[in-house]
UniProtKB/TrEMBL annotation:
Organism: Collybiopsis luxurians FD-317 M1
Similarity comment: Belongs to the class I-like SAM-binding methyltransferase superfamily. RsmB/NOP family.
Keyword presence, Manganese: no
The protein's name: SAM-dependent MTase RsmB/NOP-type domain-containing protein
Region annotation (Disordered) ranges: 444-523
Entries under SUPFAM superfamilies matching the protein: S-adenosyl-L-methionine-dependent methyltransferases
Length: 523
């Protein structure tokens, strides 16, 4: 029965906006993770049906002494109605309380199927985001352990056929084709239905399931591969981007990986161990509490920031099942307030990173499509006293994955040309999740020429002040903002997403915010 309590707890925390499916499941004991993931996902798929059936059968009303939790009732009734094995637990008062209503529950389910005009249970399930169908299964080769060529030979020996990236199609009926990505050298593309959970290379960390867009930040940061390199990953869990940075550094130098949440820190450590990252020093503290003047960090030259975000760009995960309910009860004003709180926190992270004395390059990324979290945060960061003091500007487009065509939104930036230095990924069109990447460099470098700030400042709705005062507290929840993808999931739960972590943090002495305009479409 503990397994059901665990699944119900995940659903409770999802209801409380304390994380994403992937992030919360990653905290479940490894021996139960696969099973819990499957039950949570399937329960969410059938949640409207289960709620209707439970209500019509009067289960909670008649068994309120035994079933005090709605989510516990949901997972148990799911297995009564949709699992061939029924409730997988020993006899006890809670199990018996549900089984007493087994006949009535099945009867109400049958009535619902007749009412909806469907014949199978599967027709009752909520379907995923249709845009996910165009996204391949992305597999990043961990070049710390083997080469891309070795990986290609490995999969070729397993019956897969290497295709040219331009001819690879996710709509193909063949699940045995794969290709090398055109933009990320160590990334392979497979059919979205190919599972890697039983693949030995995945189990031992030689390949990592990670969405293409979430590989962009590490590539754009371009950390040095030398024994003297010192790099920071400010919000590291679950570790996909951290392991990517480590590989790009050739497993050399020092990579400080910060994660403040204890359970997520444990997940990070397991991931880094699995990927054999020898140059990472993981630190269980909040990056914002780290003293930039500490001699330990005096030589930090590159910082990766992928902080909490709304996760609005993620399409190939099932959190939308939760979000659709939550957003139905949220007004436009409430959504705007949430986004502005996130944007205030994101800006605070960038400004803190700019205080490190030797940092030359900072990458800020989100798995959001909202301009409030993307262009507006970058715009405010450029206007901040921290950027002015340290002379931070945007890197030239030629330094920010120039072969990627989709760039930032020009109308949301202060200066012509600034948007060209930003990367956007659009779900449904770019075969990735929605993503945003920016890169700040010190103006003393040659890359800064032509990108200095000038002219009048423009304002968009949801404006983030350069000082970040108006909104420097985070919204509810604690997903991971990772945007990564697949590590820690199972089946449909291996979402190429990114967890969205909204880590609550309030700034003391917070000033009264400016009056906000209504949120406009697309912001």
């Amino acid at each position: 029965m503990n397994f059901y309590f665990s699944a119900a707890d995940v659903l409770d925390r999802l209801d409380a906006k304390k994380g994403s499916i992937k992030g919360l499941i990653s905290t479940v004991a490894e021996k139960d993770r696969k099973r819990t993931s499957a039950l949570v996902i399937q329960t969410l798929k059938y949640k409207p049906v289960l709620l209707d059936v439970i209500d019509q059968a009067k289960l909670l009303k008649e068994e309120r002494k035994k079933l005090s939790s709605l989510n516990l009732a949901l997972v148990l009734v799911h297995d009564v109605l949709f699992s061939s094995g029924g409730i997988q637990a020993g006899d006890g008062p809670i199990k018996q309380a549900v089984l007493r209503h087994k006949t009535r529950l099945h009867s109400e389910l049958q009535k619902l199927k007749i009412k909806r005009g469907v014949k199978s249970n599967e027709e009752l399930a909520q379907s995923g985001d249709s845009r996910a169908a165009s996204i391949p299964r992305y597999v990043r080769v961990n070049t710390t352990l083997w080469s891309v060529d070795e990986a290609i030979r490995h999969f070729g020996a397993k019956g897969f056929t290497l295709k040219d990236a331009d001819s690879f199609e996710v709509s193909s009926k063949s699940h045995k084709d794969f290709a090398k990505d055109k933009h990320i050298p160590a990334l392979l593309l497979f059919h979205p239905h190919v599972s890697f959970q039983d693949e030995e290379a995945y189990k031992i960390g030689k390949v990592i399931l990670q969405d293409k867009a979430s590989c962009f930040p590490a590539v754009v940061l371009n950390p040095p591969a030398s024994k003297n390199a010192v790099v920071i990953d400010a919000t590291a869990a679950p570790g996909n981007k951290t392991s990517h940075l480590s590989a790009l550094m050739g497993n050399l130098g020092v990579l400080f990986a910060f994660e403040r949440d204890r359970r997520r820190f444990s997940t990070l450590q397991k991931m880094l161990s699995k990927a054999k990252c020898k140059n990472v020093e993981s630190v269980n503290v909040d990056f914002l509490t780290v003293d930039p003047t500490d001699p330990k960090y005096s030589r930090v030259s590159h910082i990766l920031l992928d902080p909490s975000c709304s996760g609005s760009g993620i399409v190939n995960r099932l959190d939308y099942l939760v979000e659709s309910e939550q957003e139905a009860d949220s007004s436009v004003q409430e959504l705007e307030e949430r986004l502005n709180k996130l944007a205030g926190f994101q800006l605070m992270m960038i400004k803190h990173a700019m205080k490190f004395p030797s940092v030359q390059r900072i990458v800020y990324s989100t798995c959001s499509i909202h301009t409030i979290e993307d262009e507006h945060v970058v715009r405010a960061a450029l206007e901040s006293s921290e950027a002015r003091t340290a002379n931070f500007v945007l890197a030239l487009p030629s330094e920010v994955l120039p072969e990627w065509k989709r760039r930032g939104l020009e109308g949301e930036m202060n200066e012509p040309g600034h948007a060209a230095s930003l990367i956007r990924c659009l779900p449904g069109e770019d075969a990735t999740n929605g993503f945003f990447v920016s890169c700040f460099v010190r103006g003393s470098s040659s890359s800064s020429k032509g990108l200095e700030r000038k002219g009048k400042r423009k304002r968009g709705s949801g404006h983030v002040d350069a000082d970040g005062e108006a909104d420097e507290e985070e919204s509810d929840g604690d997903g991971d903002g990772d945007g990564d993808g697949d590590e820690g999931g199972e089946g449909d739960g291996e979402d190429k997403d990114g967890d969205v972590e909204q880590r609550p943090r309030k700034k003391k002495g917070k000033k009264k915010g400016k009056k906000k305009k209504k949120l406009k479409k697309g912001e």
